[in-house]
Automatic annotation (TrEMBL):
InterPro entries recorded: RRG7
PANTHER family, per the entry: REQUIRED FOR RESPIRATORY GROWTH PROTEIN 7, MITOCHONDRIAL
One Pfam family this sequence matches: RRG7
Protein name, UniProt field: Restriction endonuclease type IV Mrr domain-containing protein
Record's GO cellular component terms: mitochondrion
The keyword Glycoprotein appears for this protein: no
Localization (cell): Mitochondrion
Organism the protein comes from: Mycena chlorophos (Agaric fungus)
Chief location of this protein within or outside the cell: mitochondrion
Keywords, ordered alphabetically: Mitochondrion
Amino acid sequence: MSATRLLATVHRGTAFEERALRVLQNTLSMTLKRVGGKSDGGVDLMGWWWLPSSDFDPSAATTGTEHFSQRRRIRVLGQCKAEKKKASPNYVRELEGVLHRHLAAAADQPLVALFVSESPFTKSTLLRAQSSPVPFFLLHLPPEEEGEDPKNGIGSAVWNPALAGAQGLLEGKIDARWERSTSGVGRPGLWWGAYRLPSWTPDATPVENDDFRVE
């Protein structure tokens, strides 16, 4: 690979990581930072996921009385891939290994594996994640191509039973859904039953509901 092509690839990867950070904070209540480098241990993003506790009452939230500061935080370790080919199950296996190493060092701390891809996931990748004992969140953020119709950018938010199942980390109470605005722009969102959870992090104001709807 030529130096020019390598530089372009690195730039594309960095730009995608920065875009992923914005989306994760603005729509999914995550505060992450980039940690990529030669000593990253297979991790591109690391930080916290701010979610309601298991006794959260949506009826209180709809009246504007949710106490965001009482949200619990869950450690997140993530990888980002800005590739044109579909994401293979090898990335899931690699991230499983990363989480197992971190769990060995902090067994009492819940961890979530986050894999953000600019390209869609293969069927094998989805099956591998679904069968994993590791709590997995797969997020497909399609590229934002200049001049293209935003309606063409259909992404997806998928997680496995170890994360979202009744016996999983989130106890089956929260869903990840792909939403679309009236203008056609898409984004991921979190839902507690019929209630859309506003995105909240300690250093930002809540992002309330708007003209987006679930696909």
